[in-house]
Amino acid sequence: MTSINLLAFCVALSLPLAAAAQPAAQKIPEGFKPLAFMAGSCWEGPLPDFVAASTGVSEQALSHCVRWRLQGHVLTDTLVMSALTPPERGETNYYWDSETKTLRYIFWSNAGSYSTGTVKTDGDKIVFDDERLFGSKGVVHFNTTWTPQGPDTYIQDRRRQNADGTWTPSAVAPFHRKPLK
Q1: 3.40.50.300, 1.10.132.30, 3.30.70.20, 2.40.128.20: CATH of 24-178
Q2: Contact of 62 with 86, CB cutoff 8 Å
Q3: For position 58, what pLDDT does the model report?
C-alpha cells in the first residue's frame, strides 16, 4: 500500500469516529435533553455572591464550557472563575444512571472541593435541588435552577442552605452563550 493510499485509508477510518464524538440532535440520550442546548458552547456570567463575598473580588467573571464526551454518554462542563487569584477551575461530568433512570453529576475543583447531585426538570426549568458541596468548610447544600431564556441565555437562581435550614439567595444572574474555547 502506498503512503498516499495508507493516508486515505487512515482518514476514511477516522471519519466515523469524529462523527461519533458529538451526538446528532436526534441521537441525544433522553435523560440529557434538558442540558443538550448548552453543549458546544461556553457560558459566561457573574461569580456567585458567596464567592465574591468570601474573596473580596467584585469583578464578575465565571465561564463554563460544555462538551459531549465518550460518544454522547457524558456531558462535560469545564468551569473557570478567572477573577480569582489563582483562578478556580473545576469540571462537572453529567452522566445517565441507568439503574435509577436519573441524570447525575459530579463536580471537582482545583480548590479541593467536590459536589454531587441530580438534574431534574420542572417545566422549562433545569433543577439541581440536592446539590451537596464538600470542601474545607464542611458540607454546604445548594438548590439551583437554570431557566433558559431563548437559545443563548439562561438565568441561574442559586440558593444556599443556612445552618437553621432556611435558604439564602447566593446568585441570581444571567449566563450568555459564547463561542467554545
Answers
A1: 2.40.128.20
A2: no
A3: 53
